[in-house]
Design brief:
The chain is mainly β. The protein contains two helices and 31 strands. The strands form eight sheets. It has a six-stranded antiparallel sheet, covered by helices on one side. Strands 1, 28, 29, 30 and 31 form a five-stranded antiparallel sheet that branches. Strand 16 and strand 17 (about 260-275) form a beta hairpin. The longest helix is centred in the N-terminal third of the chain and has 34 residues, at about 15-45. About 45% of the residues are buried.
């Protein structure tokens, strides 16, 4: 929930005089800045001809990780939820913790509500509804058998993820506010949490009580859908106003450390107010050398944190949901005041020799070179050492209520509604053209049919709702959709037979039913 702290209410005569004296020059400067950015983006698009070729792809389902029960039958992995009837969950962001366990942070999760619509979690406006589990593989693992998924529990209940700021204030993790990435910096375990609502403001600069760099953003009137003033990024590259929300709205991305005493408790040490990194993915690498890429070591390590992000899931209002990149040295440093010394550097283009350039200002950030598809959806990144390539999963579909304007006809997905794969030699691209890696038809038996009875082989709409009550009200009768891909980098392995081929493992959500699938894709380079 957005709020306006007392110290940010600086309305008065002095502010009005300042605005009258400076707003026009500032507006002119911002317009010039947008023109300069448009030129940079045009130049970046020319880099696409340097993109690597695509790959041969073959995807097979390993198993459903979590899938809501059907009458008389329960599908999914060997789910251990401490005896709590688990209805369903979504998303799932993975990393390996200090102990070596492979942990997955899930999004909105509900226990047994299909049996009891009046359960306290039957409406998802709760302080916390995100969960966490450990993915346990049998020894030896053949890469094809279903793993065991052990959820964190407390007594006879699921242990829901909690998030508090450095000052003790609780951050609400209800619907749509979820963990979107997780990593280990060698000293602490961290997660990035997306928090809805943004930051309200009044005439003048954005308040900087949570993010000291919020002053780089603007305070502007928006329709969200209730008219108000909020902090926005008006650099003009991510689109215009949507029929539902303002494409410029900045939201808080919390950089939070795990409490070593309680696995599902996190403390936010920085609230990063951003528009360009709302839909984010994170990886840590052994060595990041943008000025000398030949010296880089992109294998998992504790040298640098890389975060990719988009301003949204789709090209709202005719704009583009371009992919941005920041890097930060590791380990992350927390001061005595409990606040993170957050000093990321943002990709801002290339120099004359083709080396990437970075800036300390978020306003300088520009999209990486990739041919857009709409919707862009969630993004996951992973480095595959066997291929010496970065692998991106992106795409999927969005509920109609979140995509009221429809998809951008000028940038269609090669396979509408599918999860797509791209490749790159470096984390800044350029990226190969999007290739469908899992289509709706491939996953049809796990998706409820749409109004036309598609995709072929889909599940008929249930006579009795099998989704959460609030989701049914929000998306009444909506079909299954693929979204939220997550590369489980730790499971990547060289493919049998050698050559330039590797198997990547990843999970993806289905929306209706509300579950998560585990997939294996063999990627073979030409």
């Amino acid at each position: 929930m957005a709020f306006i702290p007392a110290q940010s209410l600086r309305v008065g005569g002095a502010l009005l005089v300042t605005c009258l004296a400076s707003c026009e020059p500032v507006a002119a400067a911002r317009e010039g800045e947008r023109g300069h950015r448009a030129q940079i983006i045009s130049e970046l698009e020319a880099w696409q001809h340097r993109a690597p070729p695509g790959a041969s792809l073959r995807t097979e389902e390993v198993c459903p990780l979590v899938m809501p029960p059907e009458p008389g039958r329960v599908t999914g992995a060997q789910v251990d939820s401490g005896g709590v009837p688990l209805y369903g969950t979504d998303l799932g962001r993975s990393y390996r913790d200090h102990s070596g366990a492979l942990r997955i942070l899930f999004g909105d999760t509900w226990p047994g509500i299909s049996q009891n619509p009046l359960h306290p979690h039957a409406c998802i406006n709760t302080p916390s509804d995100d969960t966490e589990a450990v993915l346990e593989l049998p020894e030896p693992w053949d890469g094809r058998s279903c793993p065991r998924l052990r959820f964190e529990t407390e007594g006879d209940a699921l242990s829901y993820t909690t998030l508090h700021r450095w000052d003790g204030a609780r951050v609400r993790l209800g619907a749509l506010s979820v963990p979107i990435a997780a990593f280990d910096d060698g000293q602490r375990e961290w997660a990035l949490f997306y928090a809805t609502g943004g930051q309200s403001c009044v005439l003048g600069a954005c308040p900087d009580h949570l993010d000291p760099r919020a002053g780089e953003l603007s305070c502007a009137p928006i329709a969200d859908p209730i008219p108000r003033h909020a902090c926005v990024d008006d650099s003009g590259i991510q689109g215009r106003n949507s029929a539902i929300w303002d494409a410029r709205l900045a939201v808080y991305l919390h950089v939070a450390a795990r409490d070593p005493r309680r696995k599902t408790a996190f403390t936010s040490h920085h609230a990063f107010l951003t528009n360009k990194f709302q839909v984010a993915a994170a990886r840590t690498v052994a060595r990041f050398e943008p000025e000398h890429p030949e010296l880089a070591d992109y294998r998992s390590g504790h040298g640098d944190l890389l975060v990719w992000g988009r301003p949204g899931f789709d090209a709202r209002g005719g704009g583009r949901a371009g992919l941005h990149l920041l890097h930060h040295e590791l380990p992350l440093r927390v001061g005595d005041d409990g606040r993170l010394r957050w000093r990321p550097r943002f990709f801002r283009g290339f120099d004359a020799r083709g080396r990437p350039l970075f800036s300390e200002r978020q306003r300088d950030a520009v999209p990486l070179p990739e041919r857009p598809i709409d919707p862009a959806g969630h993004t996951s990144m992973g480095y595959v050492a066997e291929l010496e390539r970065w692998v991106m999963l992106t795409g999927g579909a969005m509920p109609g209520a979140l995509n009221a304007e429809g998809d951008d006809a000028s940038a269609p997905q090669p396979a509408p509604g599918a999860i797509h794969l791209r490749l790159s030699e470096h984390p800044w691209g350029p990226f190969s053209d999007a290739q469908p890696v899992l289509t709706r038809r491939q996953a049809a038996r796990h998706l409820v049919c749409d109004a036309r009875g598609e995709p072929e082989g889909c599940r008929p709409p249930p006579a009795v709702p099998i989704r959460h009550l609030c989701v049914e009200l929000y998306d009444r009768g909506g079909p299954g959709r693929l979204y939220g891909p997550n590369i489980i980098e730790q499971l990547t392995r060289a493919a049998e037979g050698g050559g330039r081929s590797a198997d990547i493992y990843w999970n993806v959500s289905t929306w209706h039913p509300y579950g998560v699938l585990l997939e294996r894709t063999r990627v073979t380079l030409p």
